[in-house]
Automatic annotation (TrEMBL):
Tree of life domain: Bacteria
Species this protein is from: Streptomyces umbrinus
SUPFAM superfamilies in alphabetical order: lambda repressor-like DNA-binding domains
Name recorded for this polypeptide: HTH cro/C1-type domain-containing protein
Positions of the HTH cro/C1-type domain: 165-196
Amino acid sequence: MEIANRTLTADVIAALTYWPGVVWVGQKNPPDPVDLTVLLPFFNEVLQELPWWNRDWKVSHVEPGFPLEIESDHHGHPSRFTEVSVPGTVGCGSGESLPFVTKVGIAGDQLIRFEAKVGDVVIGPAVAPAGRLEPHPFARVLTGLMDLRGIPVGVMARETARSMSTIHMLRSGRHNPEPLLAQEIAKVLGMSEEDVRVIAGLDDGSTQ
């Protein structure tokens, strides 16, 4: 799904940034009402571009969104974009419906992120190329922690008694961080095993 460089209309931006339940500096309280129905064709247009999306299903209802991040230069800590979560409903001609929520990121009038959740299924932008599995999310965190500490792959491999290829696969997300490996990595990073287990998604007692 290609979303980059998609220009949003002024009415769609107004609907995405209509947050009557939120009080924040710079916004009129309560804000002037806007037409939220303009979001229906916008969301449907994006979803319809998915080659596997069932065209019978359409977003039929949306509610005011909630800001997750607001574009601002407040207090010298600039945020370059606005991200908002918009709840709603999708339905089909048979009368069946499912809860729907999207996460939309905008910078100026440009759409930079679109993630939807239909029922319990998340639809979002991929990291890996088409036809390849998505990397384990632990990969990015491990790579960042190692780089910040100046720990080369060879050192991590030696200290954990693992091969360099295993560490490379962990850093690329092609290998899951099982509990024993998380314990060994924690020692090299100088972190608690409990913290690394949480970061690796092993805090629920699972093995994945």
